[in-house]
Amino acid sequence: MNQQYLEILEILRPIDNEFMKVLFKNQNCVELLVKTIFGDDVSLMKFETEDERKNLQGRSIGMDIVVTLSDGRIIDIEMERSTENATPLRARYHASILDCSESFAGEEWNQIEEMYVIFICEKDVFNTKQLVNPIERYMVNGDLFNDKLHIIYLNASIQDESPLGLLMHDLMCSDPSQMYYEVLRTRVSYFKKSERGS
Predict the structure, then answer these.
(1) Which of 78, 44, 47 is nearest to 61 (CA)?
(2) Tell me, what's the pLDDT at 197?
(3) 198 in any annotated domain
(4) Which Pfam families does this UniProt record tie to the protein (predicted)?
(5) Does 1 fall in a domain?
(6) Judging by beta carbons within 10 Å of its beta carbon (0-12, 13-18, 19+), is residue 180 exposed, middle or buried?
(7) Percent of the chain predicted with pLDDT > 70
(8) Distances from the Cα of 176 to the Cαs of 54, 106, 158, 195, in angstroms?
(9) How confident is the model at residue 53 (pLDDT cuts 50, 70, 90)?
(10) What domain range includes position 132?
């Protein structure tokens, strides 16, 4: 095994793009993400990783993890190390691409599924010092606009003792022995420690 490759592998974390692509092809890892964010009562119907979608003008975008829950909700989860790529306009674009690809001819407007675009960011993008930054749209009178779109920014630099804070720790951790969640620890160890994985 190439020594340089092993040295690079040793420092990779789940939040790092190339490693994330491999780790989250595993349903157990995706379920850990979704259930930690939404609660244990959610159920996955399907998921795709590195899902490339195009608009009618040919502009493509790769979505890290796209999940459809059994109740129809659609979730796009993006791991993002760069603050430049975690902009509100990118969140808007991801939502628009999903809307176009997940709605169908003849579908009533009220049948469009509830959608979540979630950015898990290495840094505190908006300098809120909060772990969870939910984004909703409101009307002038303060009522929720209720367009069934929810954008959530998770700040992985906040690693408290909550289940979500522990998950942020694991996503930023390069040493599987230091990870809290068995699912991630086992998956990361497979690639870093076993001959078959590496």
Answers:
(1) 78
(2) 53
(3) no
(4) PDDEXK_2
(5) no
(6) middle
(7) 96
(8) 36, 48, 19, 16
(9) confident
(10) 11-193
| pTM reported for the whole predicted model | 0.91
Q: Are 121 and 156 in contact (CB under 8 A)?
A: yes
CA 105 vs CA 94, 100, 108, 115: distances in Å: 21, 11, 9, 19
For the record, the structure tokens of 129 come out as 């010092």
Helices (H), the chain: 3-11, 17-23, 27-38, 88-102, 163-171, 182-193
Report helix, strand or coil for 64: strand
Contact 74, 68 (CB under 8 A): yes
Query: What's the pLDDT band for 1 if we cut at 50, 70, 90?
Result: low
Residue 4 lies inside a defined structural domain of this protein: no
Instruction: Please give the tally of structural domains in the chain.
Output: 1
> Among 42-46, 69-73, 99-103, 168-172, whose mean pLDDT is lowest?
99-103
- Contact call for residues 46 and 55 (beta carbons, < 8 A): no
Q: What is the mean pLDDT of the chain?
A: 92
